[in-house]
């Protein structure tokens, strides 16, 4: 169900929203937010606020939003690997950050290593 908080610019979009699904605004204050990644084990969602150079975290259990990482090297792409760890791409540092070499290799394959990118990969 779309509330008045949402502006629908193309009426075709309304066909995509199921009547029994509730769309909820979790946070305001981002200049440009993208890259949501949900962690089911911790019941939280992280995403990037690129121009503000931070990552935010929404806690499903109490609805609170807090800073997850700041500065975040303008991270813009986040995903969760098979072991439940964060994998993120950054703009400012020019690298992919993955928790292990295995995760980094999967990340490269998923993104398309054939593109000829020379970005370095690090892990923690």
UniProtKB/TrEMBL annotation:
SUPFAM superfamilies linked: Calcium-dependent phosphotriesterase (SSF63829)
GO terms, molecular function: hydrolase activity
Keyword Hydrolase: yes
Residue ranges constituting the SMP-30/Gluconolactonase/LRE-like region domain according to the UniProt record: 32-93
InterPro entries in the cross-refs: 6-blade_b-propeller_TolB-like (IPR011042), SGL (IPR013658), SMP-30/CGR1_Lactonase (IPR051262)
Classification via Pfam families: SGL (PF08450)
Keywords attached to this entry: Hydrolase
PANTHER family found in the cross-reference section: LACTONASE DRP35 (PTHR47572:SF4), LIPOPROTEIN-RELATED (PTHR47572)
Name by which UniProt lists this protein: SMP-30/gluconolactonase/LRE family protein
Source organism per UniProt: Limobrevibacterium gyesilva
Organism lineage: Bacteria, Pseudomonadati, Pseudomonadota, Alphaproteobacteria, Acetobacterales
